Amino acid sequence: MSHESTAAPAPMFSLTLTGIGKTYVDPVLSDVSISISAGQILALTGENGAGKSTLSKIVCGLEQATTGHMLLDGQAYQPASRSAAEHLGIRMVMQELNLIPTLSIAENLYLNQLPQRFGWIDRPRLAQAARAQMAAVGLTDIDPWTPVGELGVGHQQMVEIARNLIGSCRLLVLDEPTAMLTDREVELLFTQIARLQAEGVAIIYISHRLEELKRVADRIAVLRDGLLVCDNAIGGYSSDALVQLMVGRAAEAEIDLGHRNFGAPLLRVRGIGRGDVVRPTSFDLRAGEILGVAGLIGSGRTELLRLIFGADRADHGEIFIGDQTQPTVIHSPKAAIAAGIAMITEDRKGQGLLLTQSIGLNTTLAKLPAVSRFGVLDEPAESAVADDYIERLRIRSRNSTQIVGELSGGNQQKVVIARWLYRDCPIMLFDEPTRGIDIGAKFDIYKLLAELARQGKGLVIVSSDLRELMLICDRIAVMSAGSLVDTFERGQWSQEAILAAAFSGYVNNKQEQTS
Length: 515
Known about the structure:
Elements: E1 14-23, E2 27-37, E3 41-46, H1 52-59, E4 67-72, E5 75-76, H2 82-87, E6 90-93, H3 105-109, E7 116-117, E8 120-121, H4 123-135, H5 153-164, E9 171-175, H6 183-198, E10 202-206, H7 210-216, E11 219-224, E12 227-233, H8 239-247, E13 265-274, E14 278-286, E15 290-294, H9 301-309, E16 316-321, H10 333-338, E17 341-344, H11 348-352, H12 359-364, E18 372-373, E19 376-377, H13 379-392, H14 409-423, E20 427-431, H15 439-454, E21 458-462, H16 466-472, E22 475-480, E23 483-489, H17 495-514
Parallel strand pairs: 3-10, 3-11, 6-9, 9-10, 15-21, 15-22, 17-20, 20-21
Antiparallel strand pairs: 1-2, 1-4, 4-5, 7-8, 11-12, 13-14, 13-16, 18-19, 22-23
């Protein structure tokens, strides 16, 4: 068994798609023709629902095209499954992760090729191979026997990338690979991409982050409403021009937060913590305020929100709602919701949605009595609510009865947001609210967040995108190694100062360990 990161590809590689179309109930792809060869990096972009993920799934054997054909090295190519495509060196890191949470990192990496000795799994060999593969993507400080379910989504993303770099890889499809990564992890990924390109691996890089596409790609392909509207050298396009191609209109350069008067604190957190994951943390959230939380992956950002929301049990600390003099006991999400706290989770697939249910049900789930009569669901009322949010959030769908699992990732995220907007809680916790959402729709979300703040709600927003936080927040708190290390007011921050704070906790910990 070989544990090399990536075997050298065959000298010749070319993949040609001709007239590819895909129809479910309605067409989602129409007459797409495109090609890629060894060592090329093709950027693939477009709005949510434009057909990017569907096209890549056809290439990687997860979907079958309705029309058209493909050629691999000049021969007919129609993989019947993902494993069939992988056997030919075509691999995909999907936006929705394909990991088993109850198994360790090592077991997830080598699940189909576990080393054995005398009929038993050779754990020392497996651990050695896993550590080498994890080091390739910067996961050197994590025990390979850690269950994947205990990792944050960002670290899970790096494990998924590492898994797909094992063995022969001739074409690697990366679907929104940096959506949950911070700058340090992004740089590690780009190092791997440069190495793969030098070895002749072809790469399809799907992202809404135009600055990333221009940095890594040779060519840009843009899909809009299932049609290929651009396939050209990327150097000839400005970001504004690409946005025009993607959405048919220019994106705004900034957001008008409007005039707001901050009110009294809606939420007072005092000394809340859980082991070393979140050390004692205190802050206030005022009415009408947007408070950002920055930090590296693993810094405790998500874990802090989960403690406040009651998804994890705090070891110590208190939470006060409004002007209450007695702390509110929050030992479950149900208690948090009753106290007026909502949370938009970073893991929409695992924690945020009922994927087999309709948009309507998912939208009204947190406030079902409002669309029920005598304990029976009022379907017309449910549809009316969902239709309103479909229009407001520009959710690409057939109608409110469509199953959420059929939507693109970004549109699924909008459904999660719609649910909590409908619940109308005064305190709203957002964990990566624009993950997987295209650049045009991001500004729709930003405007919505600003409107919520103008209504007097208090918003806490965790994001891996510093520019996003600097664009929409009134204050930015920085987590590092489990501690809230600094808070910056609007007008007083800089990207360099926030990043320095984000690394400070780890530097201090290392100095303490060596002293």
